[in-house]
Every structure is written in C-alpha cells, then in structure tokens.
C-alpha cells in the first residue's frame, strides 16, 4: 500500500465573503450569508507528498485529485484586499487535461504554501523520474 503523508490541509478564508456578509446585514436575507459561509467552509484542500486533494459541496460532495508530478508552474496572486488581510491565491499550471489550471483561493500565508507545493512537486517528479520537454518558438526561422 502506498503511504501518503499529509503535508498541509486548509480552507479558503471567510474574508472572501466579507462583501456578501455586509450586504446581508443591509440588503439581503441572513440565509444567503449562511449559505456563503457554508459554501466556503465546504472547500477543503489537502496537500500530501503525492497529490493535492480538493473537496467541496454542501449537499453533494465532489472530490478531485491533482497528482503533484503534473504541476508545471506555481504562482501567487494577491489583490489589494488580500494583501491587507494577509491572504492570497496559489495558482498551479498543470499538464492535467481536466484541470489545466487550479487555484487555491484566499489562503493565509499563501507564499509559504506555494513554496511547499513547489518543493513537493520537485520531490515527486524525482521519485517518479518525470521530466518535461519544453518546446517553444524562439523566433528563429
């Protein structure tokens, strides 16, 4: 059996719903705020030494995996509000046909997580002996 080690697990921050929560106090009914809270809370990211698992759903749970050796590039994006709140998005570009780009949204300490993912990707590629061939037009010709 393959022993996977959990390296990190987390949820998106509820700060992404601040505008919705505020509007529920002023305009929208409270059940909408509760729905937004539950929807955000239902997103669970689990990073192991082999893959990134993502599950979400309030009534119907959907779980997907992204094998780490398929990650080609990582980056972090922070909007103004995210920077003020110490949150960010980690974006993964992959070779997976069903998920060419995967975003982990509104996470605390996103840069540290991005670096952790990058290290685990390199270790996984080394373990599976995976190499990528990069081709591109260099403008010659």
Write structural notes for this entry.
It is a single chain. The longest helix is centred in the C-terminal third of the chain and has 19 residues, at 110-128. The protein has a single domain, classed as Pleckstrin-homology domain (PH domain)/Phosphotyrosine-binding domain (PTB) (PH-domain like, Roll), CATH 2.30.29.30. The strands form 2 sheets. The chain has a 4-stranded antiparallel β-sheet with strand order 1-2-3-4. It is an alpha+beta fold. Helix 1 (18-26) runs antiparallel to helix 2 (30-42). The radius of gyration is 18 Å and the shape is elongated. The relative contact order is 0.16. The mean pLDDT is 89. It has helices spanning 18-26, 30-42, 80-85, 110-128; strands at residues 6-10, 44-48, 51-56, 62-67, 71-77, 87-94, 101-108.
How would you briefly describe this protein structure?
The protein has 141 residues and is of the alpha+beta class.
Provide the descriptors you would attach to this structure in a database record.
141 residues; alpha+beta; 4-stranded antiparallel β-sheet; 4 helices; 7 strands
**How many DSSP H or I helices?**
4
Q: Tell me the total number of β-strands.
A: 7
Query: What name goes with the CATH superfamily?
Result: Pleckstrin-homology domain (PH domain)/Phosphotyrosine-binding domain (PTB)
Provide the spatial order of strands within the biggest beta sheet. 1-2-3-4
- The CATH class turns out to be Mainly Beta
CATH fold group: PH-domain like
Measured as a percent range, the helix fraction is 25-40%
- Average of pLDDT: 89
**Architecture in CATH?**
Roll
Helices and strands, in N-to-C order? EHHEEEEHEEH
Total of domains: 1
User: Helix/strand/pairing class, anyone?
Assistant: alpha+beta
The global form is: elongated
Largest sheet entry: 4 strands, antiparallel
Radius of gyration based on Cα positions? 18 Å
Distance between the termini: 51 Å
Beta content comes to 25-35%
């Amino acid at each position: 059996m393959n022993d996977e080690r959990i390296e990190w697990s987390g949820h998106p921050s509820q700060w992404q719903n601040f505008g919705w929560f505020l509007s529920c106090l002023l305009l929208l009914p409270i059940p909408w705020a509760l729905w937004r809270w539950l929807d955000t809370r239902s997103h669970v990211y689990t990073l192991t030494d082999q893959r990134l698992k993502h599950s979400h759903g309030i009534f119907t749970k959907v779980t997907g995996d992204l094998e780490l050796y398929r990650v080609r590039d990582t980056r972090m994006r922070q909007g103004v509000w995210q920077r003020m709140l110490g949150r960010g998005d980690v974006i993964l570009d992959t070779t997976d046909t069903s998920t060419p780009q995967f975003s982990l949204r509104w996470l605390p300490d996103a840069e540290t997580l991005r670096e952790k993912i990058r290290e685990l990707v390199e270790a996984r590629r080394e373990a599976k002996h995976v190499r990528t061939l990069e081709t591109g037009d260099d403008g010659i010709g």
